[in-house]
Design goal:
There is one protein chain. Helix content is 10%, strand content 42%. The protein has one domain (41-268): Sandwich (Jelly Rolls). It has 2 helices and 20 strands.
Length: 272
Amino acid sequence: MRYRWCITLAVALASMLAAGSASAAVTAGPHGSVRPAALSVRGFRPGGSMIRPTGSAWARAAGLRHQVESTNWSGYAVTGGTGAFTSVSASWTEPTGTCSTRRDQYSSFWVGLDGYSSDSVEQTGTDVDCAGRTPQYYGWYEMYPAYPVDFSNPMHPGDHISASVTFSGSDTYTLVLTDSTQGWTKSETINQPGLDRSSAEVITEAPSSSSGVLPLADFGTVNYTGASDNGTSMGTQNPTEIIMIDNSGQEKDSTSAMTSSGSFSNTWIRSN
């Protein structure tokens, strides 16, 4: 009985701290996921479909072959017709977040199918978020527009991450995220009909909330390797380069050229 009372007291104290502090505490999210309490913004999405800028900013890139601009994505995508893609995968080193202001900021790194020209995204990846001056690192998956699900497994900057999304037929998708440094793998099998599978991508993202695109956390540089789709390196398929810009048309991060083996990097420039 005393043991149960201690647990109840601990849970109550944790709830009070989460409600009144912007600390590194965690709180339950959709479908039992966990996210640092300070980062539980309304409608938070670590991933989602690509948002294209409007007006003159979009017009500047529209005429460039294999290059487009976005207000929330950077990285690379390959595109095709409905049902063109059955798998996507890549690896990266979890970057180090530099959290130098009191303002919460966010950055996501993931692989996925769809989202380039469709309303759904089947994706899994990691985040480097800033709860004020405290960096947070965690993994997640999302069958956008369904709620994201965060993983409570330990993750640290410098960890070697690999991720894949595979369509195995009969409307079944398997999303796998591995942190080989910490020694864990999360594999989720989801059944969902009617998805396009018209693009495959490896993306650095400025996550969004119900109010729009959020400030991009300073992640330094993230290095991706082995980006591939349908078992073939993206670097041999003339992929589309995606450049993330703010509302003024300034780049928020830079995207390097992709090698034939599917390696490239994104480097942070500004939060918004």
